[in-house]
Design a protein that fits this description.
By secondary structure, this protein is mostly beta strands.
Length: 525
């Protein structure tokens, strides 16, 4: 009897434990959530009413028969485009938006400005992730949308619709006809090769030109005449030029494009003289002014700088054909965009096209560049009239193939061995380093693993790279200049950028790489 009693007691304990482990409550939907009617079923959204409240979207909560936390996923669907966007996930029983916020959501469903669409709002209630039920009804309404980005444009304009018909007006560039001559003109930046159409801003269903394309990324000028003929420039890079600038009228100072603001900017010192904006070092593309003010015209008069000072210079070429600039005095200190490296390899001419340039992308006094140097090359760094050579004795790091030294009013810098070298210069600290570089073998099979590559030797006669190296069982790749920006893998007979690791077996190999043909050979010794 005692044994039987213990058995039943144990069975009862197991039953209780099983109930305690089941954390999901016994739930059954009693009543689904149900939308309340909108106070308005036809809405015209405009820039003028964007801050006003959109009709509140509300519903009665779902009833699962027990007390439980219930969340609601609310979805907006454009029934014309069949595209949807989740408006919110909430535990509340209502959503409140401004007209502007709803306009943004509608744009994500493929709604275009100035057009009226049919929309539905649907809802799913969720509890404990195991229960999900659709609402008992949906909301339907009509709405016309607007583009807040063109609110200040009072002349005719058009959209550059990238990927048309699957385009997004919220990110489209706008070209315009401010003088009313029937010609739309403007600029658009492309992140890559792309196709596009040009659509009338007043009625985006009207296509002014289609089947257009660019072959590469860049900032293009696009012009469309009344007949729908399109003229498209090459990619343009803008600069300032003039006797107010450090390069005078012979060499432009490059500006930088900001993809967020869609403007070209530059911080630099100017003299109280004159300047203009120019693209690609070509006077075919230049802007000046015709009168006082900041409106630019093609081929206009020189822009007068009132006083010597450092300025933040902004060039805005994306305002639908009406182009402007601004000059803001600043105390921000910024370096030159580059230093030239005149020397014996090119005749000691700092302004010549064949002089190497180390670049400071951030204009932070730090410059870098990688170049081929013949044997016994002598050179100096040059910055707008200032020559900088080596001062004192250099520090040599043989393990990393690097020489470090101070720069200033010093001697010529000499590179004794032919090869590719990476140059790094800091004109704040007045220091420089030269590191022998090029293509290297790297990988689990290489002597230093994936942490550090083994430098190959350049053969200038046939532009190949070679090395004799002992490998272990494992994998390798080829990498340029100690970084992964350029790396080759895959098949030796057809190497590819970012290709797969190359499997190798242990042994000593003579490896020859031809970067131009993207091929390599490995001969086991």
């Amino acid at each position: 009897m005692k044994s039987n009693y213990m058995y039943f007691l144990l069975a009862g304990f197991l039953t209780l434990a099983s109930c305690e482990d089941d954390k999901e409550p016994v739930m059954e939907l009693q009543n689904a959530a149900s939308f309340n009617a909108l106070s308005q079923n036809s809405i015209v959204l405009t820039n003028d009413n964007k801050d006003a409240a959109f009709p509140v979207i509300s519903w009665t909560k779902a009833d699962y028969g027990v007390s439980a936390v219930v969340n609601y996923e609310v979805t907006l669907t454009n029934t014309t485009t069949n595209k949807s966007v989740v408006m919110a996930e909430t535990g509340s029983d209502q959503l409140a938006f401004t007209n502007g916020e709803m306009n943004t959501l509608m744009a994500k469903t493929g709604a275009c400005p100035g057009q009226t669409y049919d929309f539905t709002v649907s809802l799913v209630s969720k509890s404990y992730d195991a229960f999900a039920d659709a609402s008992g009804n949906t909301l339907s309404f009509k709405a016309a949308t607007f583009d807040p980005n063109v609110a200040d444009i009072t002349w005719k304009y058009a959209y550059v619709a990238v990927g048309y018909p699957n385009w997004d007006y919220t990110t489209a560039y706008v070209i315009g006809d401010p003088d009313g001559d029937g010609v739309f003109d403007g600029y658009a930046n492309f992140d890559d090769a792309a196709s596009y159409a040009v659509l009338d801003g007043a009625d985006v269903t009207k296509v002014l030109a289609q089947g257009q394309s660019v072959d590469s990324k860049g900032f293009y000028q696009i012009t469309v005449n009344a007949n729908g003929d399109v003229r498209q420039t090459e990619p343009l890079s803008w600069e300032i030029i003039g006797d107010a600038t450090s390069g005078g009228w012979s060499e432009g100072t490059k500006m930088e494009y900001d993809a967020d603001t869609r403007k070209w900017t530059l911080i630099t010192s100017l003299l109280a003289r004159e300047m203009k904006f120019r693209a690609n070092g070509n006077w075919d593309y230049n802007y000046g002014v015709e009168a006082d003010g900041n409106i630019l015209v093609a081929g206009g008069s020189n822009i007068k700088i009132e006083k010597d000072h450092a300025y933040i210079i902004t060039l805005d070429l994306t305002n639908a054909g009406l182009y402007t600039y601004s000059l803001e005095e600043t105390d921000i200190e910024q370096s030159s965009a580059f230093l030239s490296m005149p020397g014996s390899y090119q005749g000691w001419s700092p302004e010549a096209d064949n002089a190497y340039h180390v670049i400071s992308e951030a204009r932070d006094f730090k410059y870098t560049g990688t170049f081929y140097m013949p044997a016994n090359t002598e050179f100096k760094f040059y910055d707008g009239g200032t020559w900088m050579g080596m001062k004192g004795d250099p520090t040599v790091d043989e393990e990393n193939n690097t020489v470090s030294f101070s720069i200033g009013d010093g001697d010529n810098i000499i590179v004794t061995d032919a090869g590719y070298y990476r140059f790094a210069v800091n004109t704040k600290k007045m220091t420089a380093t030269i590191t022998k570089t090029g293509w290297e073998v790297i990988g689990s099979a290489a002597p230093h693993g994936w942490d550090k590559g083994v430098l190959m030797t350049y053969v200038p006669e046939d532009k190949t790279w070679t090395i004799t190296v002992t490998l272990t069982d494992g994998e390798i790749k080829f990498r340029w200049d100690g970084a992964w920006d350029i790396n080759y893998g895959g098949s030796l007979g057809g190497l590819e950028q970012d290709g797969a690791n190359i499997a190798v077996s242990a042994g000593t190999y003579t490896i020859v790489l031809n970067p131009d043909t993207k091929t390599a050979t490995m001969k086991k010794n």
